[in-house]
Design a protein that fits this description.
Layout: E1 2-7, E2 10-13, E3 18-26, E4 28-39, E5 46-51, E6 57-59, E7 67-72, E8 77-82, E9 91-101, E10 106-110, E11 114-119
Length: 120
């Protein structure tokens, strides 16, 4: 059984910062790519940032220069540092991990989501 648990969401003023964390636990053999998505109510889920197994990163244009994704492979954890936040960053943020579990199966897992609210 694999589980992803996010933390770090909350309320912040515009211009402020938050750091999200997501820990993967369970019978994990290895983690490939990890990513953060967000979803605004009534809209489709969108990709925010990706970090590859080798450490390469990609960002949505809307967050480039403000958000930083990183990972700790020992702790099976991915982070999202969000700086200079804007009201339009308000959303539920989801962690995603492409991993190999015991038995050799590979698939993507999702966390339960954490709410981030940016006030103007």
């Amino acid at each position: 059984q694999v589980q992803l648990v996010e933390s770090g969401g909350g309320l912040v003023q515009a211009g402020g910062s938050l750091r999200l964390s997501c820990v993967a636990s369970g019978t994990i053999v290895g983690i490939k790519n990890m990513a953060w998505y967000r979803q605004i109510e009534g809209k489709e889920r969108e990709l925010v940032a990706t970090i590859l197994g080798g450490g390469g990163t990609n960002y949505a244009d809307s967050v480039k220069g403000r958000f930083t994704i990183s990972r700790d492979n020992v702790k099976n954890t991915v982070y999202l540092q969000m700086n200079n936040m804007k009201p339009e960053d308000t959303a539920v943020y989801y962690c995603n991990a492409d991993l190999i579990s015991a038995g050799g199966s590979r698939r993507a897992y999702w966390g339960q989501g954490t709410l981030v609210t940016v006030s103007s």
